[in-house]
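seq as requested:
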Amino acid sequence: MDFELLRQLSNADAIASNENEVRELLKHELVQYQETFQFDGLGSLMVTKKSQQKDAPTIMFAAHMDEVGFMIRYISDIGMAYLTTVGGVENRAKSMQLVRATTRSGDKIEGLLNVKKDSHGEIQQMYVDFGFDSRTELIASGLDIGNMVCFASDCRALAPSEIVAGKAMDDRAGCFALVQAMKDLVDIELAVNVVAAFTSSEEVGTRGGRLTTQIINPDIFFAIDVAKNPELDRSFMNTRKLGAGPMVEFYDKTMVPNPKLIRLVCDVADEESLSYQKDMFKGGGTDAGTAHLEHGGIPACVLGLPLRYCHDPYSLVNKNDLMNMNKLIQTLSKSISSDVIAETNNY
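struct tokens:
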């Protein structure tokens, strides 16, 4: 697998509705599917591997392009840029972090993120010091209200060779695994159409998953996403261990998956001797939460990648988990047929 692509995806900046840097990388990597490219009104990219079988059903895998981050909300007379969050940035990540803003022309300008707290230690305001001394200087640099601000992190390998640290692994790790699977499937004949949806605006309400599902109307939907590993816990209650394989999610607050589909995923993984973990979300949700409610209800399942730290300037991901997710996506694509889908919907 080309892990240079993971570095590029992680280093790209893309909050909700501002995903062009990521989208262009994905379009370049999947150029073999260029004739199938579709887009929703938010900018989600849909890529289709078409079956040669007549009236073949469709399965869809969705990974979101957007990351949590910020936008410039106010500019003070002394040249400070005050921010609003876009998505659920961790509070611990809002202080003394190097960030970069993207101007209208695409220039990158770095600054230091800091906060003001009240007497109880609660964050009242977030601001970036770009080094300017006046509003006039800041505006002259090209910065303005509405500009995207992201962590100025640099993706890199750590001492254990299988561990990669970088920002926005939620969900660039999922995008990476899905891209690799689609590239590996390009010349393989399948009994289903396979759609890879790289969705917009998941972090602000799972919006792209809903719209792409409206457009494609898949017979089965898989969300390829992530979940935060409790880094100090190595007990049996940690079902998100790095290096132990993707997680099959049995529950979250936005969706309880079709039991037959869950069994299918586990059986397919077992038959191929693929490592995986059985997990549940305590809170939150994924694109599957909105997607499974479209078109009268669609069988859906969440396949997750374990991360240490999430919605932070850096997350840690294991290369082996990415490779196993790639294999699981391919294996499911090869295993699902019209008969399998009919049985999944047999109530």
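The mean pLDDT is 96.
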